[in-house]
Every structure is written in C-alpha cells, then in structure tokens.
Amino acid sequence: xxxxxxxxxxxxxxxxxxxxxxxxxxGFTVSRNPMSITREIIRQDKKDLYLVVHSQGQALELLIGxxxxxxxxxAYGGVARFAPTGYRFKKxxxxxxxxVEDYTNYHMTLRFLAGAMGLPxxxxxxxxxxDVTRIxxxxxxxxxxxxxxxxxxxxxxxPFEGGDVVALPPLHPDVTILHTQYAGEDGTIRIEGLSFAxxxxxxxxxxxxxxxxxxxxxxxxxxxxxxxxxPPFLVDAIIPTPLGAHPTACYKFxxxxxxxxxxxxxAAQDDDRFRRYLDEWVYPFETQEEYxxxxxxEDLLRIKAxxxxxxxxxxxxx
Amino acid sequence: xxxxxxNEIMALCAGRLVRNGDILFAGTGLSMLAATVxxxxxxxxxxxxxxxxxxxxxxxxxxxxxxxSRVMTGASMNTGxxxxxxxxxxxxxxxxxxxxxxxxxxxxNLNSTQLGSYENPVERFPGSGGACDAASLASGVIVxxxxxxxxxxxxxxxxxxxGWLDGGxxxxxxxxxxxxxxxxxxxxxxxxxxxxxxxxxxxxxxSFTAPGKVAEATGFDLDISRARxxxxxxxxxxxxxxxQVDPQRxxxxxxxxx
Lengths: 318, 258
Hints:
The complex is a heterodimer. By secondary structure, chain A is of the alpha/beta class. Chain A contains 12 helices and 14 strands.
C-alpha cells in the first residue's frame, strides 16, 4: 500500500497540482528548494498558482518567471548573494503582473503552525504599528474568495493582558512541496540539518509532495525514529530524486551551485534570456537523469558535500 | 597605528557594542564579522544564532546566506524557523539583532521592502524576512547602513521594521514589550538614540571623516553636538579580524592601501 506513494515527478504533479491551487514551497533561499518538482510544474504549464512561502528564492523565481503564478504571500523573495532581490519577483511586483502580500518570517511560520495545529488564528506582537500590518497588497475584491483570507490580518485587543496584538489567519495550502534527504520505504520522512518551516508547511497542507535524495529500508529509517519528521500518513507522493534541490543546497549531500546560480542571475535579468534559460534548463528534460546529464558530472562533483561538514569546503563561491 | 578600511572599522565598532553573554541574531555580511570578532576579543560567551534555526555553529567557513549549510556545521542544534524566531523575544535571553535596510528614519525605523508608493512602486527589495520580527521582539537592534542622504530619510517609503516609532515612549505604547534600536553603524560613524526623545544623534565619527560630513550625508537634521572621535582599532582587533575572522576577505573586501 505504501508503495503506491512512490511515483515519478510527472505523475505526482499531474495527480496533485491543479491550476489555481494554493502551493507552499519548502526550503529557504539557497537551500533545499524542491527544484525538480518546480521544473515539472512549469513543464506541465500549471497556471494561476497562489504561492504561500516565508523566505523563498530559486523555486519562486522560476515559477514567477515561467508565468505560473497569480498571487503570493511571502516574507522575503531573494536568492541570497546571487540575487539579493529575485529579479523575476522584482519585475513582476513592479509591473503588477502578480498580486503580492507582505508578511514576516515569523508571521508566515506561525500561520503554517496554526494551520497544522487546527487553530482558528494565531497572535503575535511582531509587526505592530508598521506598514506590514497597515497595508494590504491583495485587491479588495479577492478577499474572502477561494483560499484568500477575509483579512490579511486583524489588530485585536489581547484578551488577557490588554493592548494591541496582530491576529493572523492560519494557512491550509492545497499542496506543500518539499525536498528532503531521506524517505523510508514505508513513507516516513527524514530531514537532516535545518528543517526551516518544512514540517509545519507539510502538516498544514491537504496534499504533500516530497522529492528525496535517498530511499532507505523501513527497518533502517525506524532504527532511530527521533530523527524522523513526518509519518507516512501525512505524505501523498514520494519521488526519489538525486540532486532534486539543485542548484540549491542539500545539507550533507551537496552545496548550492554558484556557477549555475550566477548563470541564472544573468538570465533572470532579461525576458529573452530568461526564456532561453527555460528552453535550455527546464522544458527539455522529462527526467532528473537527463537534467543531471546536462549539468555534467564534473560540475556536480564540484558541489559534492563533505559528509561531516555538510557542505563543499573550499568551493569557489564567487 | 595601521591603516584600516571602512568595512573593518564598521565590523569592529559594531562588535564593541556586544556584551559578554548576549545572544546574537545575525544575518550575513558585516553582522557575522561583528559577532565573531566580539566573541574572539571581549565576549567569549556570546552566542550567534540564525533565523533559519542554526544555533551556535562553528562558522569554519563564512556563510553567504542564513540558509547556507555553513550555519549548520558544528552547531549546538539545528532547528527551524519556529524555534529560532521564538528565541528573539524570550524573556530570559538578552537578544541583540543585527539588521540592514534600504532606508532608515531619525527614530531608527527601517524599510527593506520597496521604494515609491505601495500603489506605484519604483523599486522592490526582498521584504522583511525576519527583520521586522527581530526589530519587534529582540532586546535591542544594531543597524548597519551606508551613510547616504537617500538612505537616511525624513519619511520611509515603506515602514517594514519598528524602531522607536515616533520617539519618546511611543514604542512601549504601541505594545512592544522591550527592544528598540541601540545604534546605527555606518561607513562614517556610529549613531545612537537620545534616552528621552529617542532621536538619532551622532555618537562617534571615524578618523577619516568629520561630524559635518556625516551630517551632510544624512537626509534629516542630525544632532552632532555629542559626537566624539571613534576609538582607533587596536593592533589586536585588526589582527583578529584579518587573520581569524575573515582571512579570505570574503566580506571585508580589499586590504587598505598603503
């Protein structure tokens, strides 16, 4: 039965992602972005996606650039030093081709947590008196439709201590997509290193799609259950995908790929060059094997992580 | 005295503001240098953590992003955003956050979201990330800024992260239980905030500039009456910074001329 969760990227995306869905993306800026799933979403030409993320980088850039996105709730859109503000995000924001709602990292994390825990809302003092809590970016007519909450947030009185607090709506994404290091044959998921908000994002979602570096036996993954982070019954699709986060990093397996991210930065700054990037790096590949072949063994060896340190020591990161 | 660069004096001046035992919320760039140099010189018990969840990593190699695997290596714990961001406001911890921004006003309020009006934006930055959370919840904030009139402005285009709000006791009245900016470390000097009005004033200026020049590079009236020269970097400070903290000069950039 568990075996039915193991499928190809194409099948997982076709089965679980529809036009207009609210999608939450795991990882953080240059780490563990679910890139192979992201490329497949673009190949299947999904439209009008509603992204909900905290600090997203590479996957966000690709999806916006490829025209898959209608609206985003986010805290941060950038690919670290390689694009301090994502170029496709910046352009889409300025030209208003997407609707954008700004929150903070804590806001988005709390909203995923509230969704995961079934809380009606969650409150914090973070952001009081700022434009983050005063200004709303989504059009008024979108409020309360589909997954768009009736209010971005509400300033309410703390019923216990008095004073203003920021009440935030929970998130219940249609689909959360993640890339992790391990899955067991039984569907148990293990993340090594920082989990970012991946676990909360998965627990908040209706469907969870996970690509992973390695599949290990049920016996092996259950030998140390305290290291595991999601039980099989929360996971809908598992896609074994070596280097599935490339060109972002996957702790203990590989570093981010500075050469590719620099190439992407050049492409992302111009519409024609970006289209050529998609033609070269996204559309042609039905499988991850073909994508890896295109990158070449030599380039991929360069970013191979030292198993103890978890990154590639001495990597040229300029 | 040795010659030094803007980046070097900025890292050192920010590092001097760290107290032993502080819990430091660091970004990348200069904030990491400031935290590390403080730990090596006068605050060995200070702890650096990252919003992504890396707690007290060894930082053998400098991370280029807070999501870099280099913030995970040798750490006390690798957690996630929920845990790390919850430490910001933890009442038993004295948490000092290092932040940067595109714009700052006289009360240390920050913009890292956009320029232009919200309806007609002319430039977009990445957004708050965890900056607004740190500015809201931490015990104190140290800001790094280039000292330019277009960055030190009368009114922010977008108000991302709370400083002293409108000055006086407005921050506490708005509902913040602690915190507020402690200092702004620029490439010309160090600004602090008046204890009553909470308005920014020039506290220290570097040897290669003068109070009048700092005021010229600030887009609002800056009180320079309390300014004194910044203490020159000691040989030991420069040695630690150059040989232990950033020997490859990934963040420090080129050595001083001469």
